[in-house]
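Re: that chain you flagged

S.,

Sorry for the slow reply, it's been a week of failed gels. I finally had a moment to sit down with the sequence you sent. For the record, here it is as I used it:
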Amino acid sequence: MGQISRMKLSKRKTSKVWLALNTVASFSALFFALFKGMDGAAIALAGLPPFFYGVYTGVGHMDMRRVLSSVTPTQGPE
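Prediction finished late last night. Pasting the structure tokens below so you have them in one place:
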């Protein structure tokens, strides 16, 4: 476990910013579509925020698995 704390862990700040911007943009487009009465577009746009969040967390899960699989267990002091 000591190696994980010494490794530089990604904060993923850029992807958090993109997630926030995409979420704001997709909700804005959704509310605009609802305001204009474009029901078909609103239904399609309703799936964007969960899609963006799913991609974000999926990539984070893969990053964590890669970090954990690259750490080799070490022997403690004898």
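What I noticed first: The first helix runs from residue 2 to 6.

Talk soon,
D.
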